[in-house]
Amino acid sequence: MFEALLVRRASVHSPITQSTSKLCANLSLQLCTWYNTAAAASKEEKQKKTEKGRWLILPPVSSSIDAVSVVKALSSRPSDLKGETTNTTTSTTALKWVLRCCPHLPRSLVQKLFRLRQVRRESCDSMSSLDIGNHAQEHRLKRVTAKEVMNLGDRIFLPITVQELPSETQEHYCNEDEISYICSLELYKDPAIIAVNKPHGMPVQGGIGIKKSLDELAATYLRYDYSEPPRLVHRLDRDSSGILVMGRTQTSATILHSIFREKTFGASINDNDKMILQRRYWALVIGTPKRANGLISAPLGKVVLDDGKSERMTVDTNGNAISSQHAVTKYQVMKSSAHGYTWLELCPLTGRKHQLRVHCAEVLGTPIVGDYKYGWQAHRKWKPLSWSNPQKNKKLPRSKESPFGLDSEGGSIAEKQPHLHLHCRQMIFPNIALALQHLQSSSNCDLSELESLNLVAPLPPHMQRSWGILCF
Known about the structure:
The protein is an alpha+beta fold. About 35% of the residues lie in helices and about 20% in strands.
C-alpha cells in the first residue's frame, strides 16, 4: 500500500521530487520488513509462553534422607559401627520426588499420570543457559517412569492441569470450644514431630460413618505455620487412649515409619535392650495373671466371622488363621485389688493389630476392662463396683463435658458399661529433630549418642476414676 501511494505521487510531481519519492519508497519497504519481523517475533513469543505454560515444573532433585540408614545409626552402639561408613542419604525415584514436592496431590492421581506417560524429566546434564529456545527445551524433555531413579539436579515436569485440581484434604471447621480442646491434647512439639494425648472414643483415621477424625483435625488445627499437615506414623484403637505421634514433615514421617517398622521386624526375645522404640501401656484387667511378670510370645492371625461381615484377631498356634504374624509382649503386674482387678504395665515389642488385647484375654486369661470384643464372656457377668468411701468420690477428678460427643464423665468401673481401660502411658524414641539437625551440619556424626525423647501422657478421666476407686 505504501509503495502504490508513493508511485502515484511520483508520477504527478516533477523530476526533482522523484528521487525523494524513491528514497521514501525504500524507507517504507524497510518499515514493512521491520513490522512483519516484529509481528512474527511477537507471535513466536506468545507461542513460547503458551508452550511453557503447559508444564508445572518441580524443584530440582536434591539429596534425600535414607530413613533406614538413619534408624540404623540411631539404634547402633558406637562399637557396632567401628570401621563402617553409614550413608544417610539416598537417591530417589520419580514417584517419590513428585509425592514429596506435591503432598497435596493424591497418590492415586500421581500414579495415574505416570501410567498415562504424562510426566516428563529434564536431566541436569542437558540443561544449559536460559537463552535456549523453548523448542529446544521441549526437545530435552523425556518421558519418565514412576520407578526411574533420579539424579541430583534433575527436574520433573507435570501437566499444568494438576494445579486446577481441588485439594483432597478437606478442612474441618470447629467452634472455639472444640478448637481449644484439640489444642489441649498436645503433649509435645518440635520442628520434626508433634505428639498428642488421644482421648478415648476419638478415631485416629477417617472412614465410613466417621465425621471427624484426629488426623483430619490435626491437619487443620495442629499444622501451625507448616505448609504440610502432620502425618500419621502409627495407630491407636478408637477405644484406647494415650500417646499418638505424627511427623510434621515428610522426612521426619519417613524416619518415624522406619522406627516403628524396626520395632516390629527387629523384635528379638534375647535382645530387647537394643529396641530403638519403647512403649509402655497401662491396663486394668479382670483377674490376676499367674505370674507377676513375663514375656508373651504368641503369633496372631485374623479370623473372618459372620460370612465376612466381621473379623477378629486370635492366637494362632497351629497356623490356621489368615496372615499369621509373630507377636511379642512384655508384662508386669503393678498392683492387684481385692475386688479382682489388676493393674498391668504392657510393653509391646511388636506392633500387631489388637496385640495387647488378645494377649491379655487369650494368653493371660485376664481380659482388659471394657474390651467387649475379646473379653465378652467376662463382661456378661459384669457388676459395677460400688463406692466403698462416699467421701472419696468427691475428691476424684471430674472433667467437664468434652466436645465431639465424647463421653468423659462415665466409663469407670462404677458404670454398667465401662470404657476400654487401655492407655499408652509412655513412649521413648530418638529425637528426630536433633538427629536431622546433626545430619545437616555433618554427615559423619554419631547419632547413637543423642538423647531420646521421653513422652508421658496422663490417664484419661475414666481410668483416673477407676484408679481412685481401687486406691491405686
